[in-house]
Design goal:
About 60% of the residues lie in helices and about 20% in strands. β3 and β4 form a beta hairpin. The longest helix has about 30 residues.
Length: about 110
């Protein structure tokens, strides 16, 4: 599967996926993927022309929520709720990691 790369900063290259690629990776139909865009569970990180792109580093919460959907036979709206909670958890984990790194420097 091909990804599209855009350079944001001189040393920062982020890879992006189209909505079709995201739907394939998450085992969603294009109709379901478009619904998730409408609900706000999929938010494009970059728009180029008519095509929206999702950064690959933002894919994990959606992928997990879709896996939970398949495992527990949940409806699509539950995916929206799950993605929001999984993103919050990921943000909190990142903050905790940052605080731990800072505390190591403070204790040195």
């Amino acid at each position: 599967m091909n990804t599209i790369s855009f350079q944001h900063l001189p040393n920062e290259i982020i890879e992006y996926l189209t909505l079709a690629q995201v739907s394939s990776l998450c085992a969603l139909s294009m109709e379901e993927a478009n619904e998730l865009v409408e609900y706000g569970a999929i938010r494009f990180d970059k728009i180029d022309g008519d095509e929206g792109y999702l950064a690959t580093n933002q894919l994990e919460p959606l992928r997990i929520a879709c896996q939970l959907r398949r495992d527990f036979d949940m409806d699509l709206f539950t995916v929206v709720i799950s993605v929001a909670h999984l993103k919050s958890i990921a943000d909190l984990k990142q903050q905790l990691h940052s605080y731990r790194v800072l505390s190591r420097f403070d204790n040195s």
